[in-house]
Amino acid sequence: MIPVTKPFKTPLSELNLHLIDIWNSELYTNNGPKLLKLESELKNHLKVPNVIFLCNGTIALQIAIKALELKGEIITTPFSYVATTNSIIWEGCDPVFVDIEKETLNIDTNLIEKRITTKTSAILATHVFGNPCNISEIDRIAKKYKLKVIYDGAHAFGVKYKGKSIYNYGDIATCSTHATKLFHTVEGGFIVSMNNRLVKKINFLRNFGHNGPYDFALAGINGKNSEIHASIGLVNLKHIKSNILRRKKISNYYSKLLSPLVEDKFIRTINSENYSYYPILIFSKSKIIKIIEELQKKGVMTRQYFKPSLNTLNYLKNNDQCEVSNQICERILCLPIYDLLQETDVEIICETIINQYR
Ligand SMILES: *Cc1c(COP(=O)(O)O)cnc(C)c1O
User: Fold this and answer.
1) Does the N terminus or the C terminus of the chain have fewer Cβ atoms within 10 A?
2) Does the Cβ of 276 fall within 6 Å of ligand 1?
3) Domain limits of the chain?
4) How far, in Å, from the CA of 181 to the mean position of ligand 1?
5) pLDDT tens-digit series, residues 265-298
6) 81 CB less than 6 Å from ligand 1?
7) For 181-208, what is each residue's pLDDT tens digit?
8) Is the C-beta atom of 56 inside 6 A of ligand 1?
């Protein structure tokens, strides 16, 4: 079976050295030395001013909304994982969906201003498949209307924008380090913020509001992560460069083999800046169903990330119209990509797809 992704397999021998430290110290959690080391190594690796490591990427979004004290409406993208929308709702705000650009599949900044009302407090946008949103335009709009900006950077590990880490933008940037993501800690996530006052607040928010043993600064939650998860991150970070290089090779091979279909305009391949995904758009709806079926017969799993378009979720108060996102969701297909995927697997996958057009 070829899954759509396989988590990077942390070398046990390397992990064991960390586990021995943990067992010896008997410090298993509560922002211990491994977690502090991971935060510091991520800071250096990403070249960001701070990293606040958390138990997952959804809590990172929730804490971001909480830290900024957002109320009312939050303008967001319909083309993301459901966690982006759910965190808005969970924090008592209303998502307002603005359609996406055909090219980048990110929120269409030309459509944002007309959806701003007196209730709008923020923009929460996702850098889908690791491709940067139109950050300079989002910044301009946010300044003009005094809105806060959160970027869901769950797919954007290691991506740069204008020469700087993409996590340096927005009031708060979040990331998920779930097992399915490019850099993972099995479960986990983190926040980056350029604003020191917010960093301090987020540190309180992730740890019940503790300001010393008997003083509580605010109504925090448990957003902490463990020493074991942090250790997995420390090992995986050592291998991230080779992991990305391997994925780059696989992506380029896919693109080469699929190029005839692109030239004949049957499909479009979508760039993924850090090779975290390999998405393609298949223009014919009947072909996409057939392709998924035929691949499945060969044991190849694919996923239609991100279906359904989030503006169509049945538990929303309003279902905004997002034509582009609705269409893309039906035509997108993410092909398997992970470091141990073999060239022969890529060949089988591409041949199966090409065969549908013979
Ligand atoms: C994975 C993901 C999340 C959620 O992260 P978890 O760590 O699984 O909670 C949020 N947003 C996007 C875009 C994601 O892909």
Assistant:
1) C
2) no
3) 12-98+105-238, 240-355
4) 9
5) 999 999 999 999 999 999 999 999 999 999 999 9
6) yes
7) 999 999 999 999 999 999 999 999 999 9
8) yes
In angstroms, rounded to a whole number, what is the distance separating the alpha carbons of residues 14 and 125?
Answer: 36
Q: Please answer whether residues 166 and 36 qualify as being in contact, where contact means their C-beta atoms are separated by less than 8 angstroms.
A: no
Q: What is the C-alpha to C-alpha distance for residues 338 and 209, in angstroms, rounded to an integer?
A: 39
Bridge partners (DSSP) of residue 126 are 152
pTM over 0.90: yes
Q: Which tens digits make up the pLDDT trace of 253-267?
A: 999 999 999 999 999
The span from the first CA to the last CA of the chain, in angstroms, equals: 25
The domains spanning 12-98+105-238 and 240-355 adopt the same CATH topology: no
24: amino acid identity, one letter: N
CATH topology of domain 240-355: Aspartate Aminotransferase, domain 1 (3.90.1150)
Give the closest residue to 283 by CA, choosing from 348, 356, 349. 356
CATH code of the region 12-98+105-238:
3.40.640.10
For residue 332, the surrounding DSSP H or E stretch is strand 332-335
Residue 83 CA to ligand 1 center (angstroms) comes to 6
Q: How far is the CA of 81 from the centre of ligand 1 (A)?
A: 6
